[in-house]
Amino acid sequence: MQHHAASAWLMAAAEEPGGGNLLRILLIVMLVACALTAWLLLRGYRRKDD
Q1: Rounded distance, CA 49 to CA 1, Å?
Q2: What is the average pLDDT across 4-8?
Q3: Residue 20 to residue 22: CA distance in whole angstroms
Q4: pLDDT digit string (tens) for 19-47?
Q5: Does the structure show a pLDDT above 50 at 1?
Q6: The whole model's pTM is what?
Q7: Scanning 7, 9, 14, 45, which has the fewest C-beta atoms within 10 Å of its C-beta?
């Protein structure tokens, strides 16, 4: 089974003491996911004035 570069990077960040890097990564991923979800929801509510 091959390991992906992203998963290896996350595991290296998780091994460091304090969890600072892992929390930063999770926060960035969460913000990007929230922005994408908001964009998808707002796109669906767009009015079509044809």
Answers
A1: 52
A2: 74
A3: 6
A4: 777 888 899 999 999 999 999 998 887 76
A5: no
A6: 0.56
A7: 45
Q: Minimal CA–CA distance to 11: which of 21, 2, 1?
A: 21
Alpha carbon 10 to chain centroid, angstroms = 12
Instruction: Give residue 3's identity as a one-letter amino acid code.
Output: H
Angle 17-20-24 from CA coordinates, rounded to 5°: 150
Q: Which residues contact 25 (CB under 8 A, 6 or more apart)?
A: 10, 13
Binned at pLDDT 50, 70 and 90, residue 3 comes out as low
Report how far residue 36's alpha carbon sits from residue 4's, in angstroms, rounded to the nearest whole number.
23
Question: Quick one: CA dihedral 7, 13, 18, 19, positive or negative?
Answer: negative
